[in-house]
């Protein structure tokens, strides 16, 4: 049964109810008390997101300072429930203009109730596209305070659009200048052993799109992925141009993309929603270009001193540069004093996270700055257990660089009026969980 | 652009309700709207605003959609508590359901379906009928779901009015969202009905697969879940279905992906072509891996499902083990599940890498995770013969770190490795022995002792090592005692020298005479007898070759696995339990007091398949499989009989050291007798039910208690405390209750003493008791002290004494009471019954047709009671007179006497 929820609660960190919406009769109204006494006030909190208490099951997620709790008593679809929460939060954020926290909820509780009524019926998720919902669920704040008649008349055809085949785009959009912005954002995840061998490495990328297009345009996106190119050359029976091709491990698409067509023709074709959305996500594990290599040597000299040397090599093109590079080198809790020497950037000791934090604002390619530090430790008598070294973590952004080598080959736009569009493409690679054991 | 609704929460002045009432009836629209918002805010924080029902409903007839929605929200919450007033809303609902605006039509039908009041339901039918055939798809999709709501309230009505047929027609609707909702509604109705209502034919299948391409992400989930019930006719059809479903694997919505995976796995069972199967496996791997980059909660759901999938199709993710390596910042529940899957995917090819990972994890901070990592190494050793040696060397390296819990965990798994590969790795025993002193956990101790006993002949100082444990024998937990006993016997059989001979004397003595544990005692007696009759036979039994173990821990048996795979993405797949184990058809979540009326104590709850699972099971969301509504044991009649049988340990297995983890629960001589009164019903004890009564045995007062655990967790660490009371009743020792597994119960007799904490003030029979355990809060309940338990055995008086006492007490000390409900059918039987309760017969006299009986009794603290009973044999009604130094006891006495005489 794809029921996702019998009741939904929003609680603050103290356990006060901010919002409660019962969708079904099979859970009691007091179930939130059970959640409070059995999960929130115990060590259970955070140990497992799915719990059974009595005859009911609880799924919960924490988003900023709010717990969203779903209660069911049937064999509900958990995946559906969690995804619903994720999407609902995205929807609320788009209504509130960014933040989703206790204050935002209190300030918009009427709107939240209205939305909750619309996006889920009897526990079954309905249309959650912000684009469409905004057609007929409007906030008060949007309306002019001077208009005497509230605009309760819905936009004509709103209902058709909610249920329509293109349930994510409304008709009759007009833009003076037709523009599309594509952002290719990649996160590199790396786990490297202290000896420098790669234990796990992958890139998760997403293509974010901002569309300002009139009418109902059909778009087609071409990437330099191997299968797509092969299929294309098959269809057009001409060899592909030489160049780097990449192999995508997996791709997932926004619901606007025609999956059946992708499966048969390997082309990404779609009618985009208006405004900003995430077109696709992909994952690559083969042939990843790591932007940075980290070479740490950490020596424990006796029980009160440590020597830390870290060399970071940028291995992308010399003309490019990385921004906001942060390298966090863990040190033991009983660190007393540190002294540094860095060839680039600034370093300091942050006691609250027990790390040496080395920041380099602008990091050019093909360079290798180093940090050497001496750490003095308080000698403790009880400390018999050796220090478990957490991994070195790194943050960075490298504009105009893709760790996967992915490139957009083309983006075609068809619309019956035949207007011209301007397309913009940006690339950026960020650190996901970039960890080096030491 | 955010609103400023928070102001509605702020009015908490006195007289809020009247104030709101005024505002709700204001002539100004805006004021009314604000007032309704305040009402909703109050409702949210849990204030009772039901008294405003009429006023709120009066605001319903409005042009303002926002206000209307708020009023509807209020109605959904309070209509049930005000069913008579809810009828006021019906007119507006019916009118709204004919509104020209489709949003309002849909809103009316949607809300009416949520109001579970019979009177409203009657009026719902006509609007629903119309809305199901509305021109607007938005209304139709809302009405489809409403049929399911109505079915939940009144199934007959739905069937009588032909809604089911209309709903089935909507499967062919031209709007994909209507189709999806109709499918969801039909699937749910089918699930709650025994009759075939929604059967998927190949015709509907084709229609639904086409609709799949067009509907929203959620609609795809509804359709895929409904279609997963479809059984393809043959391999060809299955292939066709799979082909249509595979594109869904690329969907960004994890629920769509998991439902598609479920569908594909089910159809794969029918597909015979190995090429097709291999190809499908290849296609499913990447989307499953992608799920691991979602939110941690979704990752958790995905991992629990992947755990099932790799048990059925290990090839799918055979090459993907790296994606399950734990990240430093993964939440603990994700790490634990990843570890479990890593063990499942470990093979000779990747074991080196895997071991490096496990070793890394074993040095992390979280103790539970570290322990599981160490166990994982052991399980890999047992699973992969060729890698066993490498696993052992990693374990030895970990032991050298000398972190206490790592060492203990390592020793536990090494014992299993010894069992799996006997006579292979004994060279490491010396290293293990170095850590002997640091062991403080029972399981680790028991494991080490097992190793010493098993290899006694190869450990030079085995006798010394064992002896060091023997000193603390009486204090050890039962599992360690059992192991010590067996190990000593093994040592003696292997080295029948003087030292071990003395040790065995000590152990057998300790284990037979000095213990209350029947399991230990029985095992010791068997050894004793074996050793004294035929030492050679003892050798054959005790030192017999043991069957080889395998790592079947956390393997799910095949039929259950089938069922779980058919439930991918649902709770069942997360709990790894079939749906009926945790879903009850009982609609309310509150446990009813009439639970006790379940007929017998048979445990129908589902339990984990292998006993090993319990030993090293992962962090399953709930440790027990028993349904909360499984019949609980009935005190007395069932518990006394069923419990010992169920707890019978596999004695023979224990003997030869087969099983050293199964520790039978210590069951003190189970008292039988009438069922104990329930003092703390499960409904107020959050699943813990306590029945108790004061009883008297062999001159001692006991508090006979029965604990029934209907919660989902094991309860332990029980403690008891009695409040000050008239008799000064208090516990004479600690409460001895073993850990109670979910769905089981435990009985105990708690010795009591008198005059310990006497409460001043007027006497009262109330005994206030507090019980706590490690898992729940403190429970308080009241018991009534029965005087019967407090009458001493030496209350018999000589005739002369009786007469003297009777005369010495003034008449004002005589109290009389009629006990109308009591019949004396035979004087002898009555006297026997009274004597059994320590009321002793002195003399008898006939007065007309009346029998007059004189009896004496004495309370435990020495107050004499002189009793006169007057009755006519065979006629109900008895007159009871009593002479007593302190009159306060009289009412208690009458109560007690009545209880005895009524039987």
Automatic annotation (TrEMBL), chain A:
Keywords: Cell membrane, Coated pit, Endocytosis, Membrane, Protein transport, Transport
Record family assignment: Belongs to the adaptor complexes medium subunit family.
Superkingdom to which the source organism belongs: Eukaryota
Domain MHD: 177-437
UniProt xrefs under SUPFAM superfamilies: Second domain of Mu2 adaptin subunit (ap50) of ap2 adaptor, SNARE-like
A cellular component annotation (GO) from this entry: plasma membrane
Alphabetized InterPro entries for the sequence: Adaptor_comp_med_subunit (IPR050431), AP2_Mu_C_sf (IPR036168), AP2_Mu_N (IPR043532), Clathrin_mu (IPR001392), Clathrin_mu_CS (IPR018240), Longin-like_dom_sf (IPR011012), MHD (IPR028565), Mu2_C (IPR043512)
Keyword Secreted listed: no
GO biological process, one term: intracellular protein transport
Subcellular location field: Cell membrane; Membrane, Coated pit
One Pfam match: Adap_comp_sub
The protein's name: MHD domain-containing protein
Membrane topology: Peripheral membrane protein
Automatic annotation (TrEMBL), chain B:
Gene3D superfamilies: 2.60.40.1150, Leucine-rich Repeat Variant, TATA-Binding Protein
Keywords assigned by UniProt, alphabetized: Cytoplasmic vesicle, Golgi apparatus, Membrane, Protein transport, Transport
Region ranges (Disordered): 589-643
SUPFAM superfamilies (UniProt xref): ARM repeat, Clathrin adaptor appendage domain, Subdomain of clathrin and coatomer appendage domain
Gene Ontology terms: cellular component: clathrin adaptor complex; clathrin-coated vesicle membrane; Golgi apparatus
Keyword Membrane found: yes
Chief localisation class: membrane
Organism superkingdom: Eukaryota
GO molecular function: clathrin binding
Domain Clathrin adaptor alpha/beta/gamma-adaptin appendage Ig-like subdomain: 668-782
GO terms, biological process: intracellular protein transport; vesicle-mediated transport
Bilayer topology annotation: Peripheral membrane protein
Subunit architecture: Adaptor protein complexes are heterotetramers composed of two large adaptins (beta-type subunit and alpha-type or delta-type or epsilon-type or gamma-type subunit), a medium adaptin (mu-type subunit) and a small adaptin (sigma-type subunit).
Compositionally biased tracts (Low complexity): 613-643
Function: Subunit of clathrin-associated adaptor protein complex that plays a role in protein sorting in the late-Golgi/trans-Golgi network (TGN) and/or endosomes. The AP complexes mediate both the recruitment of clathrin to membranes and the recognition of sorting signals within the cytosolic tails of transmembrane cargo molecules.
All residue ranges annotated as the Beta-adaptin appendage C-terminal subdomain domain in the record: 791-902
Recorded family membership: Belongs to the adaptor complexes large subunit family.
Pfam families in alphabetical order: Adaptin_N (PF01602), Alpha_adaptinC2 (PF02883), B2-adapt-app_C (PF09066)
Compartment list: Cytoplasmic vesicle, Clathrin-coated vesicle membrane; Golgi apparatus, trans-Golgi network
Record protein name field: Beta-adaptin-like protein
